[in-house]
Each structure stands twice: as structure tokens, then as C-alpha cells.
């Protein structure tokens, strides 16, 4: 997850936090209305309950997306460590083979040719 994606994710989670606060305020408003000595206003309670439920659904969707995104995050997926190590090992093997070939060439040069 690159820093830009992480920033965006944190911003979305902060927005969810703000929406949770708003939902709690809605729920508190409904509770106050229900406890009103003159009795609750049905229209007020209904509209706040609808808004509460819609907000809860939106929050749930956003949190699911964030959880899914976090589960897909693989920090070492783009790491080239394994490739670099394999490359270094191959390079050292190649150097060893070249020194062996040089030694073989020197040894072969010490013997007279049979032409």
C-alpha cells in the first residue's frame, strides 16, 4: 500500500468516524424526542430513524471496503529482494566457473599439444 493509498484509506476511516459520531447524535436526538413530556413527534422520529439506518448502511459498506483493502495489502509483494539475492548467487557461480575455466586453460597450456 503506497503512502497515497494509505493516506486515502486513513481519510476514509476518519470520515467513517465522523459519520459514527453523527449517527450517535441522531440516536440521541430520537431518544430525547421519545422521552419528551409532550410525547414524540412521529415525523421527527421516522425521519431520524431513516437517516440513522441509511448512515449505518453507508458506514458498514465503507468499513467492509476498508477491511477488504487492508486484507489485500501485501507489503513484500513488490520487493525485489529474492530476485536480487538469486542474481547475486548466479553471478558468484559464474565467477567460480570462469576461474575454473582459467585454471583448466592454464593446465591445458602446460602440456604439449599432440598435433
From TrEMBL:
It is found in: Nucleus. Its main location: nucleus. Keywords: Activator, Nucleus, Transcription, Transcription regulation. GO terms for cellular component: mediator complex. Signal peptide: none annotated. The keyword Secreted does not apply. The keyword Transcription applies. One of its GO terms (biological process) is regulation of transcription by RNA polymerase II. One of its GO terms (molecular function) is transcription coregulator activity. Gene3D superfamilies: 1.10.287.3490. Pfam families: Med11. Component of the Mediator complex. Component of the Mediator complex, a coactivator involved in the regulated transcription of nearly all RNA polymerase II-dependent genes. Mediator functions as a bridge to convey information from gene-specific regulatory proteins to the basal RNA polymerase II transcription machinery. Mediator is recruited to promoters by direct interactions with regulatory proteins and serves as a scaffold for the assembly of a functional pre-initiation complex with RNA polymerase II and the general transcription factors. Belongs to the Mediator complex subunit 11 family. This is Mediator of RNA polymerase II transcription subunit 11.
Amino acid at each position: 500500500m503506497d503512502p497515497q493509498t494509505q493516506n486515502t484509506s486513513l481519510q476514509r476511516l476518519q470520515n467513517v468516524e465522523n459519520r459514527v459520531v453523527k449517527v450517535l447524535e441522531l440516536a440521541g436526538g430520537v431518544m430525547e424526542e421519545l422521552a419528551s413530556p409532550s410525547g414524540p413527534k412521529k415525523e421527527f422520529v421516522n425521519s431520524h430513524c431513516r437517516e440513522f439506518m441509511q448512515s449505518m448502511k453507508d458506514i458498514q459498506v465503507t468499513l467492509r471496503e476498508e477491511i477488504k483493502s487492508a486484507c489485500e495489502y501485501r507489503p513484500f509483494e513488490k520487493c525485489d529482494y529474492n530476485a536480487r539475492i538469486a542474481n547475486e548467487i548466479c553471478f558468484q557461480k559464474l565467477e567460480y566457473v570462469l576461474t575454473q575455466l582459467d585454471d583448466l586453460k592454464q593446465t591445458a597450456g602446460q602440456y604439449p599439444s599432440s598435433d
